[in-house]
Amino acid sequence: MLSVLLILTAVAKVPTTLKPPREAGAALYQDNCWQCHGEHALGDGPLSPQIPSPPLAGRVERQDFDALVDIILHGAGPMPAYDPVLSTHNSRSILLWLEGLDPVTGLDPKAAGEPPEDEEEPPDEPAEPAQEPEAAGDDEEAAAPPE
Ligand code: HEC
C-alpha cells in the first residue's frame, strides 16, 4: 500500500506539460536578469547603481524581438552574453513575459494570485436574508399588549 502511494506521488510530480512560454520566461528572468534590471524589470536591480540597466517591463516590442534576442545572447556594453545558458527560444520567452508587464509597476496582470480587484470582493448573494431583524410589527414579540 505504501509503495503504491510512493509510486503515485512520484508520478504526480513528473511534469506532464511544458510551462507556458510566459511563465517559463518569468522564471528564467528571475534566475538571470533581475540583479541588474530589477525584480520587476524597472531597471532598479541591486547591481544597477554600478551598472545602470534599462527598465524592460512593458518596454519591449514584438518587432524588436530579434534584435533584443541578439542582445540577450551576445551581450551589449556591460550586459553579459547569455548564449552559454539561454537559447533563442528561452530568450523569446523572457521577452514575451517582459512585454506583458505593466511599465509603471512592473507587475504581471496575467499572473495568478493577482486577480483583478473586483474578483476579491465576496460574490453577490441572492438578496434573501434568513432573518429580518428590522421587520417588527407582526411577529410574536411585537404582539405584546399595548401599555
Ligand atoms: C550585469 C547586469 C545585467 C544583467 C545580469 C542583464 N542585463 Fe540586460 N542590460 C544590461 C545593460 C547595462 C544594458 C544596456 C546595454 C547597452 O548599454 O547597450 C542591458 C540591455 C538589455 C536589453 C536591451 C534593452 C533595449 O531596449 O535596448 C535587453 C532586452 C536586456 N538587457 C535583457 C536582459 C535579459 C533578458 C537578461 C537576463 C537573461 C539581462 N538583460 C541581464 C545589464 C544587464
Q: What ligands are attached or bound here? A: heme C
Given the helix and strand composition, which structural class is it? mainly alpha
CATH superfamily of the domain at 19-101: Cytochrome c-like domain
Taken as a percent bin, the fraction of beta residues is under 5%
Cα-atom Rg, whole angstroms?
27 Å
Uncertain stretches of 5 or more adjacent residues: none
Main sheet?
A: none
Please count the helical segments: 6
Output the CATH class name of the domain at 19-101: Mainly Alpha
Which fold does the CATH topology of the domain at 19-101 refer to? Cytochrome Bc1 Complex, Chain D, domain 2
CATH architecture of the domain at 19-101: Orthogonal Bundle
Number of strands: 0
Distance between the termini: 75 Å
The backbone outline, from C-alpha atoms, is extended
Mean pLDDT: 82
As a percent range, the share of helical residues equals 25-40%
> Helix and strand succession?
HHHHHH
SSE topology sketch:
Blueprint: H1 2-13, H2 21-32, H3 34-37, H4 65-74, H5 88-99, H6 117-120
Helix pairs in contact: 2-5, 4-5
Heme C binds next to helix 3 and helix 4.
Keywords:
147 residues, mainly alpha, Cytochrome Bc1 Complex, Chain D, domain 2, extended, binds heme C
Describe this structure in words.
The chain is 37% helix and 0% strand. It has a domain of 83 residues: Cytochrome Bc1 Complex, Chain D, domain 2 (Orthogonal Bundle). α2 packs across α5. It is built from six helices and no strands. The protein has 147 residues and is mainly α. The protein is extended. The site of heme C has 22 residues, from α3 and α4.
